[in-house]
Amino acid sequence: MLTNISNNQTELLPKAPPQSANSTEDQQRQPGSFNYVPVEAIQTKANELAQPDELQLEHTCHNTNKSIDQRAIEDLQRPIQFKNMEAIVNPDKYKNFISIYNSGIFEHSYPRYEYDHRSGFNYEPKQVNIKNLYAIMNLSNTTLKYSDKVYPLLTGLFENGHVFLMAPRKACNIVEDPNNPNNVLFKGDPSALRVDAIYSGRTFQEVENLIKIVHDNTPLSNHISHILEYE
After folding, report:
1. Is the pLDDT of residue 106 over 70?
2. Which candidate among 46, 63, 123, 194 keeps its CA 20 to 30 Å from the CA of 112?
3. Is 209 helix (H, G, I), strand (E, B) or coil?
4. How far apart are CA 42 and CA 216, in angstroms?
5. Whole-structure pTM value
6. pLDDT digits (tens, 9 = 90+) for 67-102
7. Pick from 105, 54, 212, 85: which is nearest to 154 by CA?
8. What is the DSSP string of 17-59?
9. What is the sign of the dihedral through the CA atoms of 229, 203, 120 and 174?
10. Nearest to 114 by CA among 28, 3, 200, 27
11. Which of 215, 6, 230, 32 has its CA nearest to residue 111?
């Protein structure tokens, strides 16, 4: 049975309440589009944003940097738990993989899909380096010839603050367990098939939405929600 996983999800937890503070006269005299905005308004808006957007707002100018409650940033970095994925307890084991991916050597081996709230998704966005990996789920193999092999699904965090799921690019590689419709299986030789793709977004809800758009009404689309179920 897989253990619970701590993971970085950005919009499922209550945000810290804004501090009670007023804009100072010095702030109001500084040039910049945010320097005439009350501190309370900046904090309220910041608490409505996902982590990458809030961090970007914080770095916009001196006023936003001073105004955004650091407790809210800490809240964004708190983990959630996924039912179906194991925590990566030894990150050093994946250092070589992360280094190779970040080098760009295999850039074209990993088709990338990024959720875009305006267009639905962005195919092959600019590569972003992996910051760290969070969790893994090893799918059992249904093919008798490759019954001793597994296919790993990985979640992690990019350096731009977006979370990602590394999963098959072909929905036909994901199948149902005939004995357990809630279980997810894999078929074929994972070392021989070019199956990896990376799906990313500001939150894992966006990753789920992205996969539904890219692989609508397929086994992969239908099972991603099961894989990313929350405790």
Report:
1. yes
2. 46
3. helix
4. 38
5. 0.68
6. 665 555 444 444 556 788 888 888 889 999 999 999
7. 85
8. PPP-----HHHHHS-STTTTS-HHHHHHHHTTS-HHHHHHHHT
9. negative
10. 200
11. 215
